[in-house]
Amino acid sequence: MKPQDGPGYGGKPSPYSPPGPGSNGNFNDDAYHSEEEPPPFHENQEFDFGLDNKSIRRAFIRKVFLVLTAQLMVTFAFVAVFTFVKEVKVFVMVNTWTYLVSYVIFFVSLCVISCCGSVRRRHPWNLVALSVLTLSMSYMVGMIASFHDTDTVVMAVGITAVVCFTVVIFSMQTKYDFTSCYGVLFVCLIVLLIFGILCIFIRDRILHIVYAGLGALLFTCFLAVDTQLLLGNKELSLSPEEYIFAALNLYMDIINIFLYILAIIGRARGS
């Protein structure tokens, strides 16, 4: 006897379709299958990719700050040695030509990392180039610090740490987009360079303090911009492949802030 001929159906068509060949006769699976099945994959695809992008961006930020931390530890280790070891101070004061050699090495490595994308994205050559740049810059910074008093250097390091930490945290938390000001900051940098050339010929202590103050302020703004370039949710952003370039930008910002603050304190104290 067919199901629709049994009692209780009254000759009306069954709301269930008859099982097809090979069916196990389980009507519940056919009746409720459409309600229980998950949404199609293409509807979740965008959401999954969003999670992947966030995880990649977080990994990129962690990698940048790890590289930056290693750079700063090496640089300020050089500063400590050049500041507290008297023999090293005497050596660099006598052999000032080593500063020029370090500057040439720094400039070449900076050009390689900035201009050759294939080098700064290829492991391990990107780390080699960044290490050479960091060592040469560390020697120059340590040599500059050796010409200042120990108290002046320690004070400059402390102020730099407080300023940079505050700017980085603020830039990562605020909703204001500093990256839109990149062009204005670049123009200000050119003006600062011209101002610096004038300060070479005009020997005035107040003028040099003003120049150093403007330089510290400008690179503090650059630090805010370069920090937001890591986030990926602003008008401008860096690709996760550019972790070496991102670390280099932050490193140069912090070093310039330190050097300008050191110049302000040194000029103010007459050292």
Q: Which characteristics define this entry?
A:
mainly alpha, 271 residues, transmembrane, membrane, 0% strand, Bax_inhibitor_1-related, single chain, Protein lifeguard 1
Rg computed from alpha carbons, rounded to a whole number of angstroms: 31 Å
Instruction: Please mark out the parts with pLDDT under 50 across 5 or more consecutive residues, or reply none.
Output: 7-17, 25-35, 41-51
Strand content: under 5%
Total number of distinct structural domains? 1
Biggest sheet details = none
Distance between the termini: 110 Å
Helix content range of the residues, please?
over 70%
- Helix/strand class: mainly alpha
Number of helices: 10
Q: What pattern of helices and strands is seen along the backbone?
A: HHHHHHHHHH
- Shape from CA axes? globular
Query: What is the residue-averaged pLDDT?
Result: 81
- Tally of DSSP β-strands: 0
Region (Disordered): 1-43
InterPro entries: Bax_inhibitor_1-related
Subcellular location: Membrane
Biased composition (Basic and acidic residues): 30-43
Structure at a glance:
This protein has 271 residues and is an all-alpha fold. It contains ten helices and no strands.
